[in-house]
Amino acid sequence: MSQMKSHIDSAPSTPGKFKMDKSPYSHRLRFHSSLFKLTFWSFIFIGLIFIFFFRSPSSSSSPISSDLSRRSLRTYSWGGPTWEKRVRSSAKVRSRNGFSVLVTGAAGFVGTHVSAALKRRGDGVLGLDNFNDYYDPALKRARQALLERTGVFIVEGDINDIALLKKLFEVVAFTHVMHLAAQAGVRYAMENPSSYVHSNLAGLVSLLEVCKSADPQPSIVWASSSSVYGLNTRVPFSEKDRTDQPASLYAATKKAGEEIAHTYNHIYGLSLTGLRFFTVYGPWGRPDMAYFFFTRDILKGKSIPIFEAPNHGTVARDFTYIDDIVKGCVAALDTAEKSTGSGGKKKGPAQLRVFNLGNTSPVPVSDLVGILERLLKLKAKRVIMKLPRNGDVQFTHANISYAQRELGYKPTTDLQAGLKKFVRWYLGYYGGGKKSDQ
Ligand SMILES: O=C(O)[C@H]1O[C@H](OP(=O)(O)OP(=O)(O)OC[C@H]2O[C@@H](n3ccc(=O)[nH]c3=O)[C@H](O)[C@@H]2O)[C@H](O)[C@@H](O)[C@@H]1O
Fold first, then answer.
1. Burial class of residue 316 (count of CB atoms within 10 Å of its CB; 0-12, 13-18, 19+)
2. Which of 233, 177, 228 has the alpha carbon at shortest distance from 203?
3. What DSSP element (H or E) covers 31?
4. CA of 289 to the centre of ligand 1 (A)
5. Of 1, 36, 162, 183, which one is least surrounded by beta carbons within 10 A?
6. Phi then psi for 395, rounded to 5 degrees?
7. What is the pTM (predicted TM-score) of this model?
8. For the CA of 251, the nearest atom of ligand 1
9. pLDDT in tens, 318-362
10. What residue ranges line ligand 1, CB within 6 angstroms?
11. Assigned domain for 167 exists
């Protein structure tokens, strides 16, 4: 190549002169030029093969499959003596009659709070989370750091990874699983339906498969959603009401989860408790939720879209503060009966429950914005918009008498008090909005 380069460099700059076949070097030049072409095209060919094999799944025409493949192809490293030691130590029970709990979605909003609460009272807690990028992973990492300081280790992995789940049950005989890993969010289901199937259906089944084969089988408490009430118009929503009209794919996957839970309870004797959370909010919350991004956008002076139902109908939510939800989750674990099966075989009927965990006082979204304005001492740029027809329901309202009776569940934080705590956390964490580019 360098020889060829020197020929070219020494050749006259006029292109036409280069074609003169009288040149004593013309023969060698032609040979070198075809060698150059061969090398050049070989590189192009190898490059194309490389691009085809290594990029094709994520460069598929559908953004859905590309996103899903990005998530499911991600590999996590786990295993080894040091890793097992950390798993064991994190899951070690430190109080009398304490539980050993596997918390999936531990770097999530509810997962972090529940893990911390369990650890505080002496339960052994091991987290599992895939740290996906549905929202700012830096927030998940910050929650992880918080939990690490309390002695909770979060294993990085996906609930669809059966080998990993089996390994965790080999290392620790979990008494309970708090299953909070999920693809959340009502509106995002229009954008990325597959991720709901991946996490809320396939992931749930993987987890239940491993739990049913474990010996002893753990008791499982898991997150369903208020969205299962869908188009139901009877208020307040009771667990006895129909839930066969979901208004979003998200709701449909949660409802399907409840049916899947029934199956595993029926066939394998797994003790299963589903908790229908009602719009949970609070410090360390999810940036995709309205109260969170309203706060961010009011601080930035950006306009905020406030949904309104037809004929100026009010849109309202039974916003529930995180500490109340945590109490409900812990009470559900405390009252969960043992699974009755072992090694994949049912020995007798097992407990199967579903509870509403709400606040029982719906608040219009416009009032939520009013509270935020007062707390932030800023006026919001409100833009009234039609309630989109992509999954949102007009209102939610929980009847919590069943949870009250069985779990002693009694929410104590109203929206004003809860948002005050959220705003204080938000300003401390993001420093008045400077860091909040999620
Ligand atoms: O209760 C539940 O089960 C669900 O609660 C929330 O869903 P959602 O109540 O829709 O919460 P947000 O997305 O924070 O919306 C809160 C309210 O603000 C309204 N909103 C939302 C977004 C927006 O731009 N403007 C607006 O007015 C919504 O219509 C809704 O009434 C969570 O996002 C779900 O993961 C959870 O399962």
1. buried
2. 177
3. helix 26-55
4. 6
5. 1
6. -155, 160
7. 0.85
8. 37
9. 999 999 999 999 999 999 999 999 878 899 999 999 999 999 999
10. 184-186, 225-227, 277-279, 289-290, 305-307, 315, 317, 365, 392, 396
11. yes
Range of the structural domain that residue 242 is part of:
85-280+321-359+397-413
pLDDT in tens, 191-222: 999 999 999 999 999 999 999 999 999 999 99
The amino acid present at 318, given as its one-letter code, is D
Question: Which of 134, 135, 180, 186 best tests ligand 1's pocket when mutated (most atoms within 8 Å of CB)?
Answer: 186
Least confident of 17-21, 63-67, 308-312: 17-21
Q: How many residues does the chain have?
A: 438
Domain assignment of residue 376, yes or no: no
Q: How many domains does the chain have?
A: 1
Q: Is 188 a catalytic residue?
A: no
Q: Is residue 128 part of a domain?
A: yes
Q: What is the ipTM of this complex?
A: 0.99
Query: Could you give the percent of the chain with pLDDT greater than 70?
Result: 82
With tokens 């789940």, the residue in question is: 165
Catalytic residue (one of 188, 229, 250, 268): 250
User: Which two structure tokens, joined as six digits, stand for 86?
Assistant: 């950390």
pLDDT score of 37 more than 50: yes
426: in domain: no
